[in-house]
Amino acid sequence: MDVVVARTFLEIVQTGSFFAAAERLLVTQSAVSLRVKKLEEALGRSLFVRSKAGVALTAAGRQFERHARAMINIWEDAQFQIKVPEGTIDTVMIGCQNAIWPRVGADWLTMMEFRMPEVAIHIRLGQPEQLMHQLHLGHVDIAILYRPELRPGLRVRQIMADRLLLVASHPDYPPDLDHRYVYVDWGPEFAVAHRLQHQDFRGSRVTASIGADALMLVLNRDRAAYLPESVVRRHLESGVVHRVKGVPAEPFPAYVAWEDGELSDALEESLLCLEVVATEMLN
Fold it and tell me: What is this structure's pTM?
């Protein structure tokens, strides 16, 4: 199977019809049908159920979808590696959790470009599950995240001993939480600690999956939320936000993960720069 067939399959999945997929791919509908027919013959399974309403994936189609996406990712990575600037001697593919990148990304990138100007850098942002999957497939060399999945063959190193602080717009916000509180999903460990600390808490009207959204609400909408100390420190120092009295901080370390094996000089330098940036940020 080639990449064109994989893209055709995924376009049909996304658009829900052979006709719409053909329009997006700038080919005829018969060409799309022929590609799918050859693909189904090669796999020995039907991938789509056709009806007047469009098409839907069969069980085999759902299984094949992840392989098609992986194939496209591998192809895109190969294109990136080949199309690096002249004079480049190595490539680093780094994945980073969305909430961490604004805090360490720019400084890390600046340091890497200064110390290793001959190295090309590919950055991918995402959520922990996505990053761990990309790391497993080899689509990223290293991943920076809060909750790495521990498994055989994976190396994990803590790079940042951060803390979650309950902060609020108003200096007299109560420690038992009220309707202004925004619950941020910082992972299962935080959820357990939150239940122990706030045993009378019965749920928040507003929840957020990304800390940056909660920060904007605290800064602009008279709200409260648990946020990383490294993120809110300057706001605390300026008096724009306030730490809620009587509520202890929760440990919230960040980690870097990579597949076990010998590291290139570029990856060794990447890890070193991450540790330097993370240390400077917390000091």
Answer: 0.62
